[in-house]
Write a structure and sequence with these properties.
Layout: H1 9-25, H2 27-45, H3 49-60, H4 68-81, H5 87-97, H6 102-117, H7 121-129, H8 138-154, H9 158-170, H10 176-189, H11 193-201, H12 213-223, H13 227-240, H14 244-256, H15 260-267, H16 275-287, H17 291-298, H18 307-322, H19 326-338, H20 343-359, H21 363-376, H22 383-396, H23 400-408, H24 415-434, H25 438-448, H26 455-472, H27 475-488, H28 497-510, H29 514-527, H30 533-548, H31 552-565, H32 570-583, H33 587-600, H34 607-620, H35 624-637, H36 644-657, H37 661-674, H38 681-695, H39 701-711, H40 717-731, H41 735-748, H42 755-768, H43 772-785, H44 791-804, H45 808-821, H46 825-841, H47 845-858, H48 863-879, H49 883-896, H50 900-915, H51 919-932, H52 937-953, H53 957-970, H54 974-991
Length: 1021
């Protein structure tokens, strides 16, 4: 370490003189103690302080007293340079002990310089302030003045520092340039730009300050408002060498002179760039119509929320709009109007936000923005355009309640406003109609009829009211409203005209006015071009009307047409074709239709009846052998059919007619043993008696009669009353009491024919009161007994309960049993659907896909079940890494379904693309979800969270934040709000690290150690 010299030339001259005098006075002594002292001084001057201390201490122990004060001074000063703990206080004490000695005048100066050199400016100030400067040389006074000034400066005591820096600036010393430099800094801190300029101009040619002066001088010129001076001084400098800070102020000067082309040329090289600089550069690019570059810079001026952010957001919105990114522009405009620093920008941004939201189809936001705009600026130049757009937004928005309120409040309604009112009321009617809230639907339909400038909407309103009345079962009112549509739309232009024909036909059909129904069905069949399921339903219903009117030939032709052309109700059409041909006495055609139906639809709910009716045809034409074969097929292949008792009876009679009394006996006995309470049981008793007589076995008849009587006692009032009472409790939804009543009935009448049905209803009570375990036990017994009419229902309900209890393997066995047991399509659907869900829950994804395929391909499935199967199949395929096929399933659902299943499919597709970093596609799908499934709050909230995640991934942070803020404000789902809050807090914490602008020089950019510019050589002479 190099230590500065502590004494002046004058001091050493004095010391030398003292040495000469001492030698002259005592040359003998000089040879010993004097040499020790002189050696100490020599070592001290060379900076060998430990060695010097040793010499001075030796000297102080000698008898020579001539240099004791000086020796002590050197010793203590050496302690100071060696950072001995008590050196400072020892020197202060030394000064107090020797107040008149010359060394005392130097001590405070040396202490100040020591602490200055070690950046301890508080102590430097303390000791420098105590120096009597008149005792110092001119050079030492300059040093004292500057270092005391800088010590004040380092402690931000600028007022005290400024005067002393000015003295340094005026003196012709080595501190002159540094004084000017620090004067300029303080003047800039005080925003005294003219004086700062004067000081800095003195340093233009100073090599030590050549790198910092141009930037500071440009800043001073700029803040003094002298933009031309900034340019004329700064541009030549930039031609020679690059300087980020000079580029900053030259570019800013051109910006303020509105020369944006040159502004951007310099601002792009500015360094470092703060928020205001990014704004100015962004606006310059905006002015040059370089919108992508404008976006890149304006985005960086958006945080935190202040006046700069507001104007940056406004022009960012325009830039996005000019690059066709309207969704991002909307968010930027919203940010601009929410920051209320500049009222004019707030107004324009609010208007643009509302109008652009309308153009992009975000009618809810358009209504919010334009309503606010018209509240604040009702007389603005754009107010009329805003009102027109607001009316259109209400027309196209799902927020019809507010639309109706707004439109109702407008006085002197124009025809356009009346039409908007009519349309809003109609759309609300549709909304509540879809919710099956018919009372509210009717109230809005009444409003839709208040103003009727739009004949199309009027006709549609009649249609909707007619459909509602039909669903309520008020077919007379339905007919009146369908007729209202026909009167309104005499040119048959309404999209609902043909549907109304179909609807009024159904109303007449249900009113049993089949002739009128037939006329409208015929119109529909003759005029509608699209051959869809509704069309063929009309064909079949027209056939039904002909059948009811006993026009069996025409009916048969229509049924056959439907069966040949369409899969819709194909089994029913074939079955009815068989019936119509039977009544038209076309017996062979009738049997062919029944048999074709069974061959094509073996799992149909009509299959067992078709087999039975084929047997009836043969029976009626006395073809008893074929009839017995048909009835036998029903009995053997459809053992659970409700027609089995009838088939047994008819086959028994056919056997009797064929003389096969033994077989006839067996069928009648089966009826009495297995179906003793059935309506055919009584007639079968008499038929059995005849067969036994023919077989000579009359003595057996009594036991069968007794069995019948036992099953059908004359006095069964108590039993019936208790059973019906339990059923009434069930019907009244008093499930705990109902369960208890059925249990008591089973115990009291264990052999009752009702006991199996009673056990089923007991299970229903347990299930509906939430006692799943008890319900399962009851259903299991019903299934085991297999004697209840409700055995099939017990199977699928038992399966559903096992599924709910997470007993997947047991659930699977029951769903499989349901498939094996039932012949009805709806039960097949339940079976395949249940197996699919079980396999998925168990993680058996290949089996889940397999079962989904069964559900889709082997059953006539409703759209809801189809879409549910596709979603489950897609999830399974994702698990099996069959992503492309899974996406195809999801696309089918989201494009076909308008239900919550469509929303889920859209979300799952968007989530897949997000996980695979296809963010733009993910956002596109989520926007479609918002447009098409806005009524499903759960998926709407989840979609906005995923939109925010996509924006974060795309580095559109302020878009993400805007999305999350909007979600927090609008969502009513606590989980969604919490998730949005957590994401928003995380983004806010990250934004804390973003710095402020650099247009104003920060303290850290100014070097605080002048020695780096003007090396201090005071003690290195």
């Amino acid at each position: 370490m190099n230590y500065p010299r502590l004494v002046s030339i004058l001091v050493f001259a004095c010391i030398s003189l003292i040495h000469v005098v001492t030698k002259a006075q005592n040359p003998v002594y000089y040879s010993s103690s004097q040499r020790t002292y002189d050696r100490g001084v020599e070592l001290y001057e060379r900076g060998h302080y430990n060695a010097a201390i040793s010499r001075f201490e030796d000297y102080l122990r000698s008898d020579d007293a001539s240099h004791k004060v000086w020796a002590d001074y050197y010793r203590l000063t050496s302690h100071l340079y060696l950072f001995h703990p008590n050196a400072e206080q020892d020197l202060v004490d030394f000064t107090e002990k020797n107040p008149t000695h010359f060394t005392s005048k130097l001590t405070y100066f040396q202490l100040g310089k020591h602490f200055y050199a070690n950046s301890k400016y508080d102590k430097a100030i303390k000791y420098f302030a105590g120096v009597e400067s008149s005792e110092l040389s001119e050079e030492e006074r300059s040093e004292l003045n500057f270092k005391l000034a800088y010590s004040y400066f380092s402690k931000k005591m600028f007022n005290k520092a400024l005067g002393r820096f000015e003295r340094s600036r005026l003196r012709n010393s080595k501190y002159k340039a540094a004084g000017a430099y620090y004067c300029s800094y303080i003047y800039m801190e005080n925003e005294n730009w003219p004086k700062a300029i004067d000081a800095l101009e003195e340093l233009k040619q100073n090599s030590s300050y050549g790198k910092v002066v141009p930037g500071m001088l440009c800043k001073a010129y700029y803040n003094n408002g002298d933009y031309d001076k900034v340019i004329s001084y700064g541009e030549p400098i930039l031609k020679k060498s690059n300087s980020g800070i000079t580029s900053l102020y030259v570019g800013s000067a051109y910006f303020d002179k509105q020369d944006y082309e040159k502004a951007k040329m310099y601002l792009k090289d500015a360094s470092p760039k703060g928020r205001e600089t990014h704004y100015r550069l962004g606006y310059s690019y905006f002015a040059a119509q370089q919108y992508d570059l404008a976006v890149e810079n304006l985005k960086k001026a958006m945080i935190p929320d202040d006046s700069v952010a507001q104007v940056a957001a406004y022009y960012l919105g325009h830039s996005y709009q000019n690059t066709k990114r309207n969704d991002l522009a909307v968010t930027a405009y919203k940010q601009a109007y929410l920051l209320d620093y500049d009222k004019n920008i707030e107004k324009e941004a609010l208007y643009n936000y509302g109008m652009l939201s309308f153009e992009t189809g975000n009618y809810a936001n358009s209504i919010i923005g334009l309503t606010r705009y018209l509240e604040l600026y009702p007389d603005d130049r754009n107010a009329n355009r805003a009102r027109e757009a607001l009316s259109d937004a209400y027309l196209k928005s799902d927020n019809y309640e507010d639309a109706l309120k707004y439109l109702a409040g407008i006085r002197n309604k124009s025809e356009k406003i009346k039409g908007a009112y009519q349309n809003a009321a109609f759309m609300l009617a549709i909304k509540y109609y879809n919710c099956q809230d018919f009372a509210t639907t009717e109230s809005y339909l009444d409003k839709a009829f208040v103003y009727t400038p739009d004949k199309t909407v009027k006709a549609s309103s009649y249609f909707l009211k007619a459909e509602m009345m039909a669903q309520k079962g008020d077919y007379n009112q339905a007919i009146l409203n369908y007729s209202g549509l026909f009167q309104t739309d005499q040119n048959r232009q309404s999209e609902y005209y043909d549907r109304a024909r179909y609807g009024i036909a159904h109303a007449y059909y249900n009113n049993k006015e089949f002739t009128k129904a037939a006329g409208h069905y015929k119109y529909y069949v003759d005029n509608v071009k699209i051959k869809d399921d509704i069309y063929y339903d009309a064909v079949i219903r027209l056939a039904d009307c002909q059948y009811i009117k006993k026009e069996n030939v025409k009916a048969a032709e229509l049924y056959e047409r439907a069966s040949n052309e369409s899969k819709y109700l194909n089994d029913y059409a074939l079955f009815q074709a068989g019936i119509a041909n039977y009544f038209a006495k076309n017996y062979e055609e009738s049997k062919n239709r029944f048999r074709t139906m069974v061959r094509k639809h073996p799992g149909s709910g009509y299959a067992d009846n078709a087999v039975f009716q084929s047997g009836i045809v043969n029976y009626d034409i006395a073809n008893y052998q074929e009839a017995s074969n048909d009835f036998g097929k029903l009995i053997n292949e459809y053992p659970n059919s409700e027609l089995v008792p009838f088939a047994l009876e008819k086959r028994g009679i056919a056997f009797s007619n064929l003389g096969n009394f033994q077989s006839a006996k067996q069928d009648f006995v089966r009826i009495i043993e297995n179906y003793p309470t059935h309506e055919v049981a009584k007639s079968s008793v008499f038929s059995l008696q005849e067969s036994l007589n023919r077989l000579g076995q009359s003595d057996e008849f009594d036991k069968y009669l007794a069995a019948y009587k036992k099953a059908n006692p004359d006095d069964n009032n108590t039993e019936t009353i208790e059973y019906e009472n339990a059923k009434n409790l069930f019907a009244l939804e008093k499930y705990p009491r109902g369960a208890q009543a059925f249990s008591s009935f089973i115990k009291g009448y264990p052999t009752s024919t009702y006991v199996h049905d009673a056990r089923y209803f007991m299970g229903e009570c347990y299930r509906l009161e939430g006692n799943k375990t008890a319900a399962v036990e009851a259903y299991e017994q019903v299934i085991k007994d297999n004697k209840s009419y409700y055995a099939g229902r017990a199977i699928y309900k038992c399966a559903d309960l096992y599924y709910a209890l997470d007993s997947m393997e047991l659930a699977k066995t029951k769903y499989q049993l349901l498939l094996d047991y039932s012949t009805k399509n709806k039960d097949k659907v339940r079976g395949y659907k249940g197996l699919m869900n079980c396999e998925f829950a168990l993680g058996n994804y290949e089996q889940s896909v397999w079962r989904a395929n069964d559900l889709i391909n082997k059953t006539s499935v409703r759209s809801r079940d189809l879409h549910g199967a596709l979603i489950t199949r897609a999830k399974s395929k994702f698990a099996l890494e069959q992503d492309s096929s899974a996406l195809q399933d999801l696309d089918q659902v989201r494009l076909e379904s308008k239900t919550e299943q469509g929303a889920e499919a859209a979300y799952l597709s968007a989530e897949y693309h997000y996980k695979n970093k296809n963010y733009e596609r993910s956002i596109e799908l989520l926007r479609q979800l918002n447009e098409n499934f806005a009524s499903f709050d759960k998926w709407l909230g989840k979609s906005f969270l995923l939109i925010a995640d996509n924006y974060i991934a795309l580095d559109e942070r302020y878009q993400a934040k805007a999305t999350l803020v909007s979600l927090k404000e609008k969502s009513e789902d606590p989980e969604i709000v919490e998730a949005a809050t957590n994401k928003l807090d995380f983004l806010e914490q990250e934004d804390q690290s973003i710095g402020s602008d650099t247009l104003f020089m920060e303290e850290g950019n100014i070097p605080l150690q002048p020695d780096s510019l003007t090396p201090d050589t005071t003690n290195n002479e």
